[in-house]
Design a protein that fits this description.
- The structure is a homotetramer.
- The first copy, chain A, is of the alpha+beta class.
- Chain A contains 6 helices and 8 strands; from the N terminus they run αβββαβαββαββαα.
- The relative contact order of chain A is 0.14.
- At the A-B interface, helix 3 and helix 5 of A face helix 5 of B.
Chain lengths: 241, 241, 241, 241
């Protein structure tokens, strides 16, 4: 039987062929991220939309080693993050993926843990986010046509309460409708795209730019906090306030 | 003959199938660490428990190049670090592996030499250890459920007297029963786990966090010693005092 | 049919065999650059001369992912950057490749986006370029026979107007006839060579030296601007003035 | 015909089997160094002793790309650096390899160009060398049994006059009979070993320790020159004086 075309608005029941294709693509992306050091130690989780209405996602199972990630380590979840069938436990952050898939109409959501995103999410937490501008690489973000674009990458406080964190994510997505990603403090990057190829491109672009930013500050050898002229870090709380 | 199940409390004689399976897994881990630059120049050694009572370990032979590590380069040693049979010379640090396997009831013990662990083990020596907190990645450590966890990574003075060093290791394991690893000064990281998969995850998590910490201090461009407000480095001797 | 010899001055019509061979070589180079992190997120573009008179280039199609770049993702363009046939859209920077191929009689032109070239193109923008001297690695640049050579790597302001940028590139190539490459600010490196092997060698050499330079300044922990003794950065505008 | 045993003191004519085996091993080492970024842009050259009396070496041909280095790209040279037969041009630094093979009775000599060795060879030039001590990794150097060992890595001024440079190398090898390697300023690392495996281990150990040293200074954010308490850099000329 030939693989059916991907039909994201279908009302039909979830199609195994679509799920399998998405899971295979996500698994390949996850292994590539692992090899770059962006998903060590079972960190990172990845999802793609199988059906839009009602929403169903293919998502990594919880606690999986990404060095050898396979399509068989993905689950299908519904719009509440519940797994379909008795397949195991989805990633703890499934609700964040669902919020993003909805708010941005994303076809794929990718979450990585790199050294530079972790570092900068701490250092810039007091400023509530990171501005990226002046880089040609920004043009690889969907809808951006000039290096003069100003990309705001919000930083959210981290939390182990997934309902709370999901609410914060929805709020930040609403407040910054043009942002292509956000950071969780001490935790890493979330980005997304219309499909997996676009989401993966966004991971590479944002990780690249965060490395450039981190190394620039390192090279200039000044404490980060001072650069923005905010002497009172106590008054500048991390978002959300 | 099918590979027998792993039976860590068996009183039977060492089982070649168990040994071979553990050695193959350790060899694969060692090659992966080498390719990340964590076991260059014959550095690093790796072990796993073949039998718990009496204790027997599979451990790397001394001075082996990790780029092409094979199962055939592992020896079996008893609870005193003596090789069973005439197989060659075990790693000089075999006694440390035995101490850890006992004190933590670990199924696998891994020792890596990364640039960042070497660097930080020198820079933080005067403080006796490194505190890691606020990072989501900490949740990958066994038994940790929040990024607010405070992981203390003790730093021990290095020594070429393995009986002395083994004693220090036992003491530090007793004093810090919740620590998931420790550093030897100028030497590298020891960590462990219930089995090889868990120990390997701990290597990746701790190496990741040490890189984040080292780059954070570098970016902030302040001498490390000052950050903790300890003006008198003479009074703060490396552990053990 | 055996592959015909490459004949760069031929007046014959473009030869499919020559094009295919060049495209395959460029694709291999592109994948290698991607794996080093020099062409992430669809960045980077690569070309080679198929015929000199009238000028025809093999060049990457626009927006292609370099991780899996294939010969089939190259187009043939004429001296105005127009694709021959209905093959799709060439890289937006095709005109720069044409300017370089003409001004330097280059057989191959390579454009990479590394972290260090991006960083340094911003930091040294006010000085109009970067001087590289004292490194043995310089001898790998065509025509250089001593580490005492002074290589000037001009930095051009970035622009989305390709006719404007093409004009600046021609001007900087004329002004610095001995330079082996240049940087676009916030954008990356352009270099070239008589053939693909030479151009690729120039990429590796210049990227290596930029990393050395960036890390040297980082290690010395002084703001870059001060090192050259130019107190008045306002007076030293980025080229072209 | 089975491959004959390696007989380094044989007076027989050069044996093709020995040469081929050494060239294959050197080629594999060269490709591995390239992939770590230690031999980019045709930099680096590698040799091994085919016969001790009269001295004959297998050595890389000049200007070869190390990414795809093969045994066929090695030449055999005599004690004056002259190629045997009409095989092409040996590496320009052949005389240095001969000096080292003689002075240290080395079976293999390896020269790499890493970012960190290049950087530190410039920064520490005024001190004439780099002291490495306190690192367990030092024990991987032949004859070293404790991390308290003090390894002195001399730094020589670079020169394009190979007879002059060869003389300096002989002098520095005599003056520092226990050193396991040296740096050429702005140029990279030379090390050696009884055989290729030992020489390769020395490359990995010294490159590792140079990276640790470079990152330590970077993290501590002080200009290098000040750390050693030498205020008068003019008076401290690079060796040889």
């Amino acid at each position: 039987m030939p693989k059916p075309p991907r039909n994201r608005r279908s009302n039909q029941s979830p199609d195994a062929g679509v799920f399998d294709g998405l899971a295979a693509g996500l698994a390949e992306a996850g292994r590539a991220f692992y090899s770059r050091g962006w998903a060590l130690g079972t960190s990172g989780n990845f999802s793609a939309v199988v059906e839009r209405e009602p929403l169903r996602l293919a998502i990594t199972a919880s606690g999986v080693d990404k060095s050898s990630l396979t399509a068989g380590q993905f689950l299908q979840i519904n719009h509440e993050g519940k797994p379909l069938g008795s397949q195991g436990k989805p990633s703890a952050e499934a609700l964040l993926h669902i919020s993003i898939a909805r708010a941005r109409r994303a076809g794929a959501v990718l979450h990585t843990h790199s050294v530079w995103s972790t570092l900068l999410s701490q250092t810039f937490a007091a400023e509530g986010g990171i501005e990226l501008t002046g880089y040609e690489m920004l043009k690889g973000l969907e809808g951006v046509s000039t290096h003069e674009h100003r990309e705001w990458l919000p930083i959210l406080e981290n939390s182990q309460d997934m309902r709370q964190l999901g609410g914060w994510v929805e709020a930040v997505l609403n407040r910054h409708p043009r942002s292509h990603g956000f950071l969780l403090r001490g935790h890493g990057l979330y980005t997304w795209g219309r499909d997996l190829a676009e989401a993966r491109r966004h991971v590479e672009i944002l990780e690249f730019l965060l490395e450039v930013l981190g190394r620039t500050h390192t090279a200039e050898a000044r404490p980060f906090g001072r650069r923005r002229g905010r002497p009172d870090l106590e008054a500048a709380k991390p978002w959300p306030r």
